[in-house]
Design brief:
By secondary structure, the protein is α/β, with parallel strands linked by helices. The protein contains twelve helices and 23 strands. It has an eight-stranded parallel β-sheet with strand order 12-11-10-9-3-2-1-15. A six-stranded antiparallel β-sheet has the order 16-17-18-23-20-21, with helices on one face. The chain has a three-stranded antiparallel β-sheet with strand order 4-8-7. The longest helix is centred in the first third of the chain and has 14 residues. It is elongated, with a radius of gyration of 22 Å. The two termini are 38 Å apart.
Length: 423
């Protein structure tokens, strides 16, 4: 089953899929990508998970296992555009990801790539010509605008004649390959790289193929940029890299509360990947492990993400995912929260946090307890604006919850949640 290339990309729901970064860092191989794609198609596609993203440095023959190599040495074409490293992606020996993209499309999935902003330093050193730009890499490079943590690229001086042509040619190549999704990195660290984002978005519009644009990484991202980001992309990160530690998850609550009221179809604030399942096989952070988040913390993470209508990108090696974690990804009633008509935090009092999501005929109330011990919590339906409702159903447990005198009393686990549909 092939994906229709004319399908509108600014879809009504946040993207859902898998990304190679949390488990394979910068050294993922074709075999590992296909193993995850096949698992997704078999076990998760019916629930809406449909995007496979090859993360950073797919063009590096000798990508670092736990850190970047000091000097980037990418595979390039004669125009300075990155090509897949054939030692890691054997089907790309002809310099194209087309065969891999076709295999992923045949599974009913979408194919995505990670990109650093800018132009490869190697292309600048060689002063390679820019396709369609009547210029060269050295003439358009902004050597003073570089990523602080990755050695691959220089920024682009978009005031230089022909500069836009580099991104145009890069996206034209991706369109030939059948790319459906691009994660563009190093554009949201302060200061936000607005000119680079606009130029990249322009190149997507010109490439002839609908491609979702995801922006990263989101450190200290200000709401002042929201309309600009929504104009040029479908999703943007609101945090730096998130890993499997409770303090990082707890910190995400304040970001989610700030951005959730502004979510709208085709323009999604992204709370980052889900660091669940088998992580760190060859990651840049930590050793190989199952996620250090407890099952209750994992349930809390997924609940917060769907309540705020964040994109969902699973970070672990899917074939090695524990069954209890896989079950969290297959709860259709929970995932349906991504289609709510509005969601927001309505209570925050110490360790108690309550969110509400709206549907035409019911509401959903997420009761979170951030404390280190379980807690009995009484929720008055009037406090969540649902006093006229007469039935309560727990979406995670799959059973009813007694309603007495307009309130429910629930036990919320430590760092846990209860997810209640009010109808």
């Amino acid at each position: 089953m092939r994906i229709d290339s004319q399908r509108k990309v600014r879809a009504g729901l946040p993207p859902m899929g898998w990304n190679s970064w949390d488990c394979f860092g910068s050294s993922v191989t074709e075999a590992e990508v296909m193993a995850n794609a096949q698992f997704m198609a078999q076990h998760l596609l019916p629930y809406g998970w449909d995007t496979v993203v090859v993360d950073i440095q797919w063009y590096e023959p000798e990508a670092g296992v736990h850190a970047y190599q000091p000097v980037s040495d990418p595979v390039l074409d004669e125009w300075g555009r990155q090509l897949p490293a054939p030692g890691r992606f054997p089907s790309a020996a002809d310099g194209s990801f087309r065969e891999l993209a076709d295999r992923i499309h045949d599974l009913g999935l979408r194919f995505g790539l990670h990109m650093m902003r800018g132009i490869p330093r190697r292309a600048v050193d060689l002063d390679l010509p820019v396709l369609g730009g009547n210029t060269t890499a050295a003439r358009i490079a902004d050597r003073g605008n570089v990523c602080p943590w990755n050695p691959d690229n220089y920024g682009i001086d978009h005031s230089a004649p022909g500069a836009q042509a580099f991104y145009d040619s890069q996206l034209a190549l991706f369109a030939e390959w059948g790319v459906d999704f691009v994660k563009l990195d190093d554009v949201l660290y302060p200061p936000t790289q607005g000119v680079e984002i606009a130029a990249y978005s322009r190149a997507i519009e010109r490439c002839g193929r609908p491609i979702v644009l995801s922006l990263s990484p989101g450190r200290a991202l200000s709401l002042a940029h929201r309309e600009e980001l929504a104009l040029h992309s479908e999703m943007w990160r609101i945090s730096d890299d998130l890993w499997d530690a409770w303090p990082q998850l707890e910190e995400m609550f304040q970001r989610a509360a700030r951005w959730a009221p502004h979510q709208r179809p085709g323009a999604w604030a992204d709370a980052d990947m889900l660091p669940l399942g088998r992580l760190g096989v060859r990651a840049h952070v930590g050793q190989e492990r199952d996620s250090r988040l407890t099952l209750e913390e994992q349930r809390t993470m997924i609940t917060l993400w769907v309540m705020m209508r964040s994109p969902l990108m699973f970070g672990g090696h899917l074939p090695a995912t524990p069954p209890e974690t896989l079950g969290l990804l297959q709860n259709a009633d929970v995932l349906r929260l991504l289609s709510s008509t509005g969601s927001r935090e309505i209570v925050r009092d110490g360790s108690l946090v309550i969110w509400r999501a709206d549907f035409p005929d019911h509401e959903v109330c997420a009761v979170f307890w951030l404390g280190d011990e379980s807690q009995e919590v009484t929720v008055h339906l009037s406090d969540v604006g649902s006093e006229r409702r007469g039935q309560v159903h727990d979406l995670w447990a799959g059973d009813g919850v007694p309603l007495r005198d307009g309130s429910v009393r629930v036990t919320v686990p430590a760092h846990g949640t209860r997810l209640l549909r009010l109808s």
